[in-house]
Amino acid sequence: MAEQMHVPLLDLKAQYRTIRDEIRTAVDSVLESQFFINGPEVKQLEEAVASYSSCKKAVGVSSGTDALLCSLMALGIGAGDEVITTPYTFFATAGSIWRTGAKPVFADIEADTYNINPSGIEKAITPRTKAIIPVHLYGQCAEMDPILELAAKYQLFVIEDAAQSIGATYKGRKAGAMGTAGCLSFFPSKNLGGLGDGGMILANDEQLAERLAVFRQHGSKPKYYHKFVGGNFRLDTLQAAALLVKLKHLDAWSEKRRQNAKQYNELFKDCAAVTTPVIRPYNVSIYNQYVILVGSRRDELIKFLQANGIGTEIYYPLSMHDQECFSSLGHKSGDFPESEKAARETLALPVYPELSDEQILYVADKVRKFFSGPL
Ligand SMILES: Cc1ncc(COP(=O)(O)O)c(C=O)c1O
């Protein structure tokens, strides 16, 4: 094995090298057209992603964050309402709820999948609850059947935060197509990443899709006549053009991530200090992240891997209920113990599709060496 290798957490240049000509042709065609806003590629991408996600409609938006915000606004959620979600997620989930004036209400996660635990949701429901936002974290869908049952029982909207999970399936159903609305992110580090920010909202209800499209454009229809206060949540034509190119490769990329994860799982099989990701048998993960549970020596491990040229990341070091900006919610540490444990003890390793077998072996070897004591 090579003495020292460089294995970043993500290598977007490696991906770009494989599609450079296609991307440049697509970008060039938008530049020639100068049709930067609402160009034909936006609609083409909406149709392609809707079909890819087995959903009737898709509405392109400016980011995954705006997909969440626009969905909440279009569903009429605001001051006085409560929305139940997981405390263990990227900030945008809870932040978007807060920005509408509604209150984020947290329910703890499952210890093994890190997704919201449906058993905590019902207890969190009050007469003010309007919606549940399950997050399909790291590329694996949350436990949707009980969530959808609760939503039907209490007449709540379900907004899937599928920012990390385009193409993932739960019992054969696609991420983002199971609830009232599904939010996708095209942030460059996602499995389908753009040349900057971008996102999309999936919806099976055509009237809702129509409403989302109106909210995306300052709530105006016809132009300059505003029935609602929306925002500028549009997806750029340039992004749509690049994403149309990348969408053709998405299945192959996600499959390669799954193979990489399988290889890591094998290599960590007899390493008791490492808990590998738990994927439910009826789920297909797209492994946006490969996250291991490593216990209390995480910070030392990060330093050791860094010294060996390996990039890692903590997703996420502080749960939402412990964030300073949400202190008025009155939570304290200990309120959501599984979420806090995950925040303390998990670590993401490189899993991107262009990793070589040698790089995977190298990363696994270093992690194992760290735990087997002094080298
Ligand atoms: C779970 C989750 N929700 C929402 C977002 C927000 O997406 P974006 O960065 O495109 O605004 C992200 C992306 O980082 C995410 O991981």
Mean pLDDT, as a whole number?
Answer: 97
What's the alpha carbon Rg, rounded to whole Å?
21 Å
Our estimate of the beta-strand percent is 5-15%
The residue ranges in which pLDDT falls below 50 over 5 or more consecutive positions are: none
The biggest beta sheet reads:
7 strands, mixed
Structural class by SSE content: alpha/beta
Instruction: Classify the helix fraction into a percent range.
Output: 25-40%
- Give every kind of bound small molecule, once each: pyridoxal-5'-phosphate
The end-to-end span amounts to: 15 Å
The global form is globular
Strands in their spatial order, largest beta sheet: 1-9-8-5-4-2-3
How many beta-strand segments? 12
- Helix and strand element order: HHEHEHEHEHEEEEEHHEEHHEH
The helix count comes to 11
Explain the overall architecture:
The structure is a single chain. The protein is of the alpha/beta class and 375 residues long. The chain contains eleven helices and twelve strands. It has helices at residues 12-33, 40-52, 64-74, 91-99, 118-124, 144-154, 206-216, 237-267, 298-307, 337-345, 357-371, and strands at residues 57-61, 82-85, 103-106, 129-133, 157-161, 169-170, 173-174, 181-185, 199-203, 283-284, 290-293, 346-349. A seven-stranded mixed beta sheet has the order 1-9-8-5-4-2-3, with helices on both faces. It has a three-stranded antiparallel beta sheet with strand order 7-6-10, with no helix packed on it. Helix 1 (12-33) runs antiparallel to helix 8. The protein is globular and about 65 Å long. Bound molecules: pyridoxal-5'-phosphate (PLP).
